[in-house]
Amino acid sequence: MSNSPKILVAEDSSVIINLTKSILAFENFEIKSARNGKQVLEQLEKDDIDLILMDINMPVMDGVSCTQAIRKLEDPVKSNLPIIAISGNLKNYTLDEFRNLGFSDFLQKPLDYDQVLALVKKHLS
To answer: Would residue 91 count as lying in a domain?
Structure first.
């Protein structure tokens, strides 16, 4: 098994998932993906994840509902995972509002992959 940090990319866009996987693979992160919040929770049940990049607007279960469900998990490691919100900021949340919703940090779409890498490294260090 690898010692590479595992990052779960929760995003309904194949383009963003593939771009994010490509960028993070250069840093030797192990990347998993989920297309909605329900799949994120299913992944967390069967796998250890070190960080989640969470799109806000996804079908089935959105990123806010999923993050709030994660924060309520009984497992203290999983309930305190770093979760970085990804959004076009359609609802105009501030960083404080994202934190109040349970997110560790926030990335604005379109994604700046230097910023993605910097935030991922910051939260994994």
So the answer is: yes
pTM, whole model, 2 decimals?
A: 0.92
In-domain check, residue 1: no
DSSP assignment string, the chain: ---SPEEEEE-S-HHHHHHHHHHHHTTT-EEEEESSHHHHHHHHHHS--SEEEEESS-SSS-HHHHHHHHHT-S-HHHHT--EEEEE--TT---HHHHHHTT-SEEEESSP-HHHHHHHHHHHH-
Structural domain contains residue 57? yes
Residue 80 lies in a domain: yes
**pLDDT in tens for each of the 125 residues of the chain?**
458 899 999 999 888 898 888 888 888 899 999 999 999 999 999 999 999 999 998 999 999 999 999 999 999 999 999 999 988 865 667 778 889 999 999 988 888 889 999 999 999 98
Range(s) of the domain holding residue 64: 6-124
